[in-house]
């Protein structure tokens, strides 16, 4: 990693974080739209039709700025998580998850949904998502989809910032909408997830990728901690010096 990517601060922060971590796609800024007047902030964003939230997130990580209204959110579980409409009974009772092959019993499916964090009904009128580097306002939540190594550094930055051990909260269901968006928004803390049935079926999330979401209010603090880590720890580890030393010893023993 070159000096240019770690000093001085680069603007905007989204592009800086992407460079520091070596991400192949953009961190995504997520905004909850609370009133009809709030929509004016996102003029020029593409209004999506019949999309899942995880698909809107996919488009934003690849450079698109999009809006999603409740009636166009094409996933009943995500719609319930954002308080747009009630969860259908077949899902709520767990039988729907049995039919998908996600759980063995309806009781387990019911428990999965009962434990989900959700936003209050009808509190928000939609969602706006954009590559983080394209926004100037502090987002409600930032979501990253990436391989574990850069996400590891993000979690370490969070520990440096807060002093708190990082605990993941997931039921391996609703990984983008609940785990990466609703939980960070409601709890005010970072959360991570390995994905779920829905987002891995409906998006380009790779088998080698996972997710992290954090509240936008800690964006600047995380960026500063990543700059610190990129000064020494990150480049040192990425050189894999101890591993190459072991390889050299093994090769010497063989010869």
Describe this structure in words.
This protein is an alpha+beta fold and 255 residues long. It has one domain (3-254). 45% of the residues lie in helices and 13% in strands. The protein is built from 13 helices and seven strands. The chain has helices spanning 3-6, 13-21, 53-61, 76-81, 89-92, 95-100, 106-114, 148-162, 175-187, 197-202, 219-231, 233-239, 241-254, and strands at 28-33, 46-47, 66-68, 126-131, 141-146, 191-193, 210-215. It has a seven-stranded mixed beta sheet with strand order 2-3-4-1-5-7-6. Helix 2 (13-21) packs parallel to helix 11 (219-231) and helix 8 (148-162) crosses helix 11. The longest helix is centred in the middle third of the chain and has 15 residues, at 148-162. The protein is globular. The two termini are 34 Å apart. 40% of the residues are buried.
The Cα radius of gyration reads 20 Å
- What structural category do the secondary elements indicate? alpha+beta
**Widest β-sheet, arrangement of strands:** 2-3-4-1-5-7-6
The span between the termini is 34 Å
Give the overall form.
globular
Mean pLDDT over all positions: 93
Query: Which bin fits the share of residues in helices?
Result: 40-55%
Count, helices:
13
Uncertain residue segments: 1-10
Output the helix-strand order: HHEEHEHHHHEEHHEHEHHH
Percentage of β-strand residues:
5-15%
The major sheet is characterized as: 7 strands, mixed
Number of domains: 1
Number of strands: 7
What is the assembly state of the chains in this entry?
single chain
